[in-house]
Amino acid sequence: MRPTRTHFSPLARLLHWTMAPLIIAMLFIGVGMVATVSRAHDTLIAIHKPLGIALLLLVVLRVGVRLTRGSPPLPDAMPALQRFAAKASHLVLYVLMAAMPLIGWAMLSAAGYPVTLYGPLHLPPIAPHNVELFALLRALHTWLAFALFATVLLHLAAALLHGLIRHDGVFSSMARGER
């Protein structure tokens, strides 16, 4: 019989701690993009587009790692409602992490703008050029960004609860490797 794992795999931890600051940066870059009309706007867009595609690739890899390597079990003492909240919030995080770059890409496609990765390297459009579709996708991208921000804050609050108050191993399962 295999012993129960108490930590996420090293690759899962690497992906988590790589993506966390990138997602937070993307949220703040997005706020900066809509809050300014200065020259910084173009710079922020030039960062936002390829970073969004990089995060899309990372989340695909992360989902693959999660499906193949799994995750450590939640503590037995965790109440059923908290177990449900933990599983539901992780599902919401994964959905939002994948949806945000896809919707952004579709939004730019609908507006007729290329998604530039670097220099002449552009991604193909994934939505038809359509002003109404662009408006819908832009609003959706904005609202889902708020949802992602709120979910990230809840995730951080839960991590702090487990790490600083409950000391039940949930935080350490992602924070450090097995000893």
From TrEMBL:
Pfam families in the cross-refs: Ni_hydr_CYTB
UniProt name for this protein: Type-b cytochrome
Membrane topology listed for this record: Multi-pass membrane protein
Membrane-spanning intervals of the chain: 12-35, 47-65, 91-113, 143-165
SUPFAM superfamilies: Transmembrane di-heme cytochromes (SSF81342)
GO CC aspect terms: plasma membrane
Phylogenetic lineage: Bacteria, Pseudomonadati, Pseudomonadota, Betaproteobacteria, Burkholderiales
Key words, A-Z: Cell membrane, Electron transport, Heme, Iron, Membrane, Metal-binding, Transmembrane, Transmembrane helix, Transport
Similarity remark: Belongs to the cytochrome b561 family.
Subcellular location: Cell membrane
Cofactors, names only: heme b
GO-annotated molecular function: electron transfer activity; heme binding; metal ion binding
Domain of life: Bacteria
